[in-house]
């Protein structure tokens, strides 16, 4: 396949299809596979951090954005390698291999049985999994970031100067392929994760969820092998600065641009091309703020969704719809209204819409916060009583803090006490009483099982020190030991009046509960647990082969439906279409022919800086309410949007082809002049 740096008069022999270079279709397929790999892995990454590595929300968010930032910092490295050393083709192939290895390591790192030597369903050495995960993520960041500026720029290189319309449409199709890969991966990968796999114990199948993206990356590697490399050069700004500093005396005349001070080392063409690149890069300075908001779809908005009811994917679907709608309907309509909707104006509108999307997210968060349970503060304890006996019970919290009556086989809600004040409990049931001293850690929830037996009142404490959702615990209220499983997850053998550990479970579905007592199984189909809920299930008796259980709700299910996120996703998708698609095409159109990858890398660098901004703002703001953080980001982007609008107003668009044609003409004239001078000198020498 032929690049722009090769002979332009060979375009007539270039393979084509539907008026486009044939290589374009292979590049689009490659991009689809690569984006499926990246977004598929990213779709479950925060959940992998939270539920497999057992990190909290803040650490999961911080590592997620650090990874994304690294993915968009490495394009600079990829562009430099491509432009100055290997060329685009070798750079893409080399880093794609690194990328595929990284995805494979991520898949291996998520294999629970790798360190589960005691076969209890949990890794015995989490640090091994963390180390492998970090190595995998670093390799993925190096690979995906390194090839980003090369693929899109290489696609643009396939077009001739007279194919500007096709090239513009290519960037829309290119972006469409990105979101097609994203759409399928964000649907398929969570389904793969939801499968249960493992050798000794069945767990959420992260190895499959990460393994399929690794396979798709190998497919992408195969497709990109049809492309050719291009070698490019650039001016060193440091030389210009140093040279200007050496000639700062008034005896040296001023030059039109500070890069002109590099003319002693570099030719006029290279200096002019570098000016064009720096002009655009300066305009990119405000853009990272957009990505600071946009990439929170994968962190804060995902975590917001875990506190809601439902399960669906929105953004990629909207992108698939909105890209052709905006390209074929909205832009032509705006043009008919005689509105000059320039690329920079489109980018400005995209920034404003993203700010509006976060206002919508804040409004949704306010409604969510009204439904969330109140957990204990550091100096508080919350206690729930479950009466496991056949008699009613009365519990008095001493010293005379509160008294509560609990009917047989019923439970109370959580009651909050100051940990330092609660000293003991007086429990009365039937004609029996018991006094129990209480020493509980602060900032935690506790369930107290109470049972009136023939020998007295038995009690059982179960503490919940953290508050994850989608969890279950079993209490054995039978006189014999039972082995409990639910939906393939083992809760172990429970002695009489003992409790299992809390285990994660998927919400929104029913599972079969099996309790094996004296080698005789009893079973029952559970009720459908709401999204975000947590339950304690009491095993009461086994009649025939039917198990009798009661449910005690520890955390209520989410009540705000995920459909309320649709407006914020719709607005952000519209912002993405007018901002990102335009930015890719603008970066290409304003870049000289030998610096396309550099400017694409500059565009991608804004994404990296945006994710770093998330880490800084989220860490420095110290806002306790999530809705307030959303409003803060919206306000920051709105302010940056105004600044960018002013910068865009004074920006002068560059006709790269015209400038390079002028340079060609000047070089041609200079070459002719040099030839004439040489001939005159040769004639003068021959006459001597």
TrEMBL record:
InterPro entries assigned: MFS_trans_sf, POT_fam, PTR2_symporter_CS
UniProt record, GO biological process: oligopeptide transport; protein transport
Membrane topology: Multi-pass membrane protein
TM stretches of this protein: 12-29, 59-82, 89-106, 126-147, 168-188, 208-230, 276-294, 314-334, 346-366, 597-618, 630-651
Major subcellular site: membrane
SUPFAM superfamilies per UniProt: MFS general substrate transporter
Signal peptide: none
UniProt cross-references to Gene3D superfamilies, sorted A to Z: MFS general substrate transporter like domains
Pfam families: PTR2
Region Disordered: start-end pairs: 664-688
Family: Belongs to the major facilitator superfamily. Proton-dependent oligopeptide transporter (POT/PTR) (TC 2.A.17) family.
UniProt-recorded name of the protein: Solute carrier family 15 member 1
Organism in which the protein naturally occurs: Accipiter nisus
């Amino acid at each position: 396949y032929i690049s722009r740096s090769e002979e332009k008069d060979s375009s007539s022999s270039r393979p084509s299809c539907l008026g486009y270079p044939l290589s374009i279709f292979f590049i689009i397929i490659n991009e689809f596979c690569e984006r499926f790999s990246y977004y598929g892995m990213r779709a479950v990454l925060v959940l992998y951090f939270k539920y497999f590595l057992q990190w909290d929300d803040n650490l999961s968010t911080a590592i997620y954005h650090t990874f994304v930032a690294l993915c968009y910092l490495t394009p600079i490295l990829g562009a430099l390698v491509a432009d100055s050393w290997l060329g685009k083709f070798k750079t893409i192939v080399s880093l794609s291999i690194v990328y595929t290895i990284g995805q494979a390591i991520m898949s291996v790192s998520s294999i629970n049985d790798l360190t589960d030597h005691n076969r209890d369903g949990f890794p015995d050495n989490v640090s091994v999994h963390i180390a492998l995960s970090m190595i995998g993520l670093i390799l993925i960041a190096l690979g995906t970031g390194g090839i980003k500026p090369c693929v899109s720029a290489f696609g643009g290189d396939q077009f001739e100067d007279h194919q500007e319309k096709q090239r513009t449409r290519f960037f829309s199709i290119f972006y469409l392929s990105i979101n097609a890969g994203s759409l399928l991966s964000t649907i398929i990968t969570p389904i793969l994760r939801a499968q249960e796999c493992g050798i000794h114990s069945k767990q959420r199948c992260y190895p499959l969820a990460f393994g399929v993206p690794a396979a798709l990356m190998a497919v992408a590697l195969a497709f990109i092998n049809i492309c050719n490399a291009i070698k490019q050069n650039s001016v060193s700004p440091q030389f210009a600065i140093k040279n200007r500093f050496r000639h700062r005396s008034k005896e040296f005349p001023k030059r039109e641009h500070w890069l002109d001070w590099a003319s002693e080392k570099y030719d006029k063409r290279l200096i002019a091309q570098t000016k064009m690149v720096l002009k655009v890069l300066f305009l990119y300075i405000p853009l990272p703020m957009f990505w600071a908001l946009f990439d929170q779809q994968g962190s804060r908005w995902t975590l917001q969704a875990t506190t809601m009811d439902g399960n669906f994917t929105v953004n990629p679907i909207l992108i698939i719809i909105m890209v052709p709608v905006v390209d074929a309907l909205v832009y032509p309509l705006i043009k008919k209204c005689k509105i000059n909707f320039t690329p920079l104006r489109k980018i400005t509108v995209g920034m404003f819409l993203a700010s509006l999307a976060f206002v919508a997210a804040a409004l949704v968060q306010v409604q969510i916060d009204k439904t969330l349970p109140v957990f204990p503060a550091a100096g508080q304890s919350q206690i729930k009583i479950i009466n496991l006996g056949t008699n009613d019970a009365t519990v008095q919290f001493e010293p005379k803090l509160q008294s509560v009556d609990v009917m047989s086989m019923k439970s109370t809600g959580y009651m909050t006490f100051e940990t330092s004040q609660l000293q003991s409990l007086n429990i009365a049931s039937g004609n029996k009483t018991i006094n129990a001293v209480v020493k509980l850690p602060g900032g935690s929830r506790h369930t107290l099982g109470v049972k009136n037996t023939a020998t007295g009142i038995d009690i059982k404490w179960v503490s919940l020190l953290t508050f994850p959702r989608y969890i279950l615990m079993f209490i054995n209220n039978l006189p014999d030991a039972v082995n409990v499983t639910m939906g393939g997850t083992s809760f172990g053998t429970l002695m009489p009046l003992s409790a299992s550990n809390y285990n994660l479970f998927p919400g929104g579905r029913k599972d079969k509960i099996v309790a094996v007592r004296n080698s005789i199984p009893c079973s029952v189909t559970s009720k459908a647990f709401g999204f975000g809920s947590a339950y304690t299930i009491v095993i009461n008796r086994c009649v025939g082969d039917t198990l009798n259980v009661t449910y005690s709700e520890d955390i209520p299910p989410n009540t705000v439906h995920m459909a309320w996120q649709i407006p914020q996703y719709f607005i952000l998708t519209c912002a993405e279409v007018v901002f990102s698609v335009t930015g890719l095409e603008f970066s290409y159109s304003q870049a000289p022919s030998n610096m396309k990858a550099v400017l694409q890398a500059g565009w991608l660098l804004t994404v990296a800086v945006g994710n770093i901004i998330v880490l800084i703002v989220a860490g420095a703001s110290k806002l306790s309410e999530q809705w307030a953080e959303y409003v803060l980001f919206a306000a920051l982007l709105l302010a940056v949007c105004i600044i960018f609008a002013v910068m865009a107003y004074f920006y002068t668009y560059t006709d790269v082809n015209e400038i390079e044609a002028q340079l060609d003409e000047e070089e041609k004239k200079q070459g002719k002049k040099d030839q004439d001078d040489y001939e005159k000198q040769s004639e003068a020498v021959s006459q001597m």
